[in-house]
Amino acid sequence: MHLPKAELHLHIEGTLEPELAFALAERNGVALPYATTDELRAAYRFDDLQSFLDLYYALMAVLRTEEDFAELVDAYLARAAAQGVRHAEIFFDPQAHTARGVPIGTVIEGLGRALERSEETHGVSTQLIMCFLRDLSAESALGTLDAAKPYLHRISAIGLDSAEVGHPPAKFREVYEAATALGLRKVAHAGEEGPPEYIREALDVLGVERVDHGLRCLEDPELVERLVADRVPLTLCPLSNVRLRTVDTLADHPLPAMLAAGLHCTVNSDDPAYFGGYAGDNFDAVRDALALDPEQLRTLARNSFEAAFLDHDEERRARYLSEVEAYAFD
Ligand SMILES: [Zn+2]
């Protein structure tokens, strides 16, 4: 739980807890189809992807103003900091907000306002990763990148998320090329529901530096060999995999085999308000369900800082890594 770690796969919209959803709904005059926080919390116990996505997009309606986005970030950072997160690279989905009439500047400035004070307020360094919804068109992604240009000083990287199957990475070649030209770094979800081929495409066509999830690489031994040789980080999300039925139970999770194969695995929370836990909860859960020993947990934490986009501040990375080495398990 308290082992120092970086969180590299976290959707800020997925951190909206029922209490904050109700508070924002009231402030913004948005009607929620739930009478109480308990009723809403019960709805968070969905058991398939579609019921998750329905709730996820419905609740976003409460996010309207810069202040709303700033409060969402602050609430996440407080929870993450309490669970040992020292550095967070945070995804957001601008199209999910612009589609309901919230300007992209409101989203980015609101998130950015909270992030720029996060070290002071929470002791967590941060970066922002702008994700494109892959079930929308490539043109929509290009338009979003264009609309984000006045705010690029707040953004480190781009990513690709939402429903994977039927939306291969190559669909977004052009927007990834444009982002590269703008100096942005690149990640993408691949190989969660989609086949190993999507992971290859993300690497070869989009030029991603990390693969989000990447679980299905295990079906392709040559791909595993390549990921190991190139030390490509995979941002795994174990509790998310269980809730979305990517694995049957946590005890079935291939994390130990992936570590043994030499894959550069990290453990993250994905959409923690919905999937049953934040970063530290995920560490505790895999330790218990998979009997990971302290050195395996330390490797996961070390991997997270090595995979972080901290190239501009190697001194900070070294400091975080020494915190990992110094951590005493009780
Ligand atoms: Zn994700």
TrEMBL record:
One of its GO terms (biological process) is hypoxanthine salvage. Zn(2+) binds at residues 9, 11, 189, 270. Belongs to the metallo-dependent hydrolases superfamily. Adenosine and AMP deaminases family. Adenine deaminase type 2 subfamily. Substrate binds at residue 271. It holds the Pfam family A_deaminase. InterPro entries: A_deaminase_dom, ADE, Ado/ade_deaminase, Metal_Hydrolase. The active site is at 192 (proton donor). Binds 1 zinc ion per subunit. The keyword Zinc applies. The record marks 213 as: Important for catalytic activity. Residues 4-317 form the Adenosine deaminase domain. It comes from the Bacteria. Keywords: Hydrolase, Metal-binding, Nucleotide metabolism, Zinc. This is Adenine deaminase. It catalyses: adenine + H2O + H(+) = hypoxanthine + NH4(+). Catalyzes the hydrolytic deamination of adenine to hypoxanthine. Plays an important role in the purine salvage pathway and in nitrogen catabolism. Its cofactor is Zn(2+). Its EC number is 3.5.4.2. GO terms for cellular component: cytosol. One of its GO terms (molecular function) is adenine deaminase activity. Gene3D superfamilies: Metal-dependent hydrolases (3.20.20.140). PANTHER family: ADENINE DEAMINASE (PTHR43114:SF6).
